[in-house]
Design brief:
231 residues, alpha/beta, eight-stranded mixed sheet
Length: 231
């Protein structure tokens, strides 16, 4: 299958979207699919990510990453540039995907100022699905520390906008049952919950226990015989 992915972020930035996206395309390559992935260009952050070139171009057999000219987002991130969708459109025409998958469509909408993938999918009669990743509404006050009344009003406006954006897609995937209920309650339709995230047990089994690890590295004593939860 020929799969196009339009992502709000990718490695070398480390977060849930980027790490899961990397392992997704790795598995798709192993299964023999062809993948074209669009993401921001991280070359302006080469001082933070000197290995950024490892995650562009043909990173796996059948997987090509196209970095779109980008704009700053936080101190360690980038957003796709608002005028770069013409590149996406041109490459989609050449690639002719059978399905389009969009990660964080609300963030991409406010970067592209258009719905990522929808127009091309409808014109070519192919499915266009998305994944709900970050509940930006719950972090709203962290980004905009405004008076409570103004924040509530803006949050409501953005909530309505997010619902409108997600409801344009054929399917919204979500990996958390709690988040599933939240986004259904605000009006997002065609939502599919499934636990499609996990971790590689074999890799974690190889970890070695070091004496006084927490005290030596984090100055936290008396943790050796206690249960530690890392998330």
């Amino acid at each position: 299958m020929k799969i196009a992915i339009i992502a709000s972020g990718f490695l070398p930035v480390l977060d849930g979207v980027t790490v899961s996206g990397f392992y997704r395309v790795q598995k798709l390559s192993q299964f023999g699919h062809q993948v074209l992935l669009f993401c921001p260009d991280y070359s302006p952050l080469a001082h933070l990510y000197p290995n950024w070139k490892d995650y562009t171009g043909n990173i796996f057999p059948g997987v090509q990453v196209i970095n779109l000219p980008s704009t700053p987002f936080l101190d360690f991130e980038r957003n796709v540039g608002f005028n770069t969708y013409k590149i996406v459109r041109r490459e989609l025409e050449k690639f002719q995907p059978e399905i389009i998958h969009v990660d964080e469509p609300e963030r991409l909408f406010f970067a592209f100022f258009r719905l990522a993938g929808i127009e091309f999918a409808r014109q070519n009669n192919i499915p266009c699905v998305c994944t709900f990743r970050t509940n930006f509404l719950d972090y709203f006050e962290d980004f905009l520390p405004l008076p409570k009344g103004i924040n509530l009003m803006l949050k409501l406006i953005f909530e309505k906008s997010f619902v409108s954006i997600y409801n344009q897609y054929d399917l919204t995937l979500v990996s958390s049952s709690v988040t599933y209920q939240k986004i259904v309650n605000i009006g997002i339709e065609n939502v599919k919950y499934t636990n499609f995230h996990g971790f590689d047990v074999e890799k974690f089994q190889s970890a070695r226990v070091t004496a006084n690890f927490w005290e030596s590295n984090y100055q936290i004593p008396n943790l050796t015989n206690k249960v530690k939860i890392v998330f």
